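Structure ticket #2291
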Amino acid sequence: MPPLLPDRIRSLVAATALALTAHGALAGRVRAATVEETFDTPPEARGWNAWGDGSPFRWDPSGRRLEVGWDSSRPNGFFALPLPSPLTAAQDFGFAFDLTLESHAVGVHPGQPGTFQIAAGLVRRADVLATNYSRGAFPGPRNTVEWTWFGEAGAVAASVSPVVIPADGRLPWGYADSFVTLEPGRRYRFELAYTAADRTARLRLAIDGQPGPRLEFAICNYSGAGQHPLYAGSVLARGWIDQVALTLPDPAGTPLRLRARDGGVVFDAMAGRRYRLEASGNLAEWNPVAEVRADLSGELELRDPRDGRLATQFYRVVVHAP
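Resolution: structure written out below.
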């Protein structure tokens, strides 16, 4: 396994889609599920779809890979695979992909002589398709966890980084550069892993199969619109995405954080799951006292309907998958 980047990202947001973005993207055991995409056959048959400007993305049947044209002169565009459930800072998750660049240039558009990122990562559709979502401006993006790379431009060195943008889009973002130049024609493997225990995102890199220097999933093409004129940059690149792998927690096994409320508990529920409140006076024998199906994701309260003059009671919540 390639070595870990030393960079540590200590904040996280909710995300619901794996997107390839082209812009010039709690007690209990968590079980992981892996989604893999090799692009051997048309990806639309497995739920991939284009959001916004879909023109930068094309499935290549001969190479059995996804061709991507990052061009910051175009509107925001995403080629995305919806995830089965939301992700939060309380869950471990990760994503990985292979990248080969055919060409790459920055500072290519008038009035934007600086550098600009290419990206892939986790986004929320409602956020990235909003009219005020501008990846090159602040504040603009939100609810984004991505891999991003900037080519060299002037005094700015080439750099790769994991990026975590919180729900309100305000600073500080989770961001840490490792200065790496990507060369056209070489095959790079990037793996981003987030661990809930220490709230840290780590990035691994391999080059042509060998370990590289330490260092909602989307493939993203970001528009260069909205940048500050003093720092405006642009990008024009072509390449292929292949061998995508996404590691996700099993929502039914995700720990719940219970908050006590008189006669019951409150917790963050997931739509479509059933939740049963159980009570015990001795932590050995448990009895069900309430059960409900969550129609919407969000805060849910389960109350003990029995006589409130009971002796001390302990509560737990059991989650049932649909």
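Closing remark: The two ends are 36 Å apart (CA to CA).
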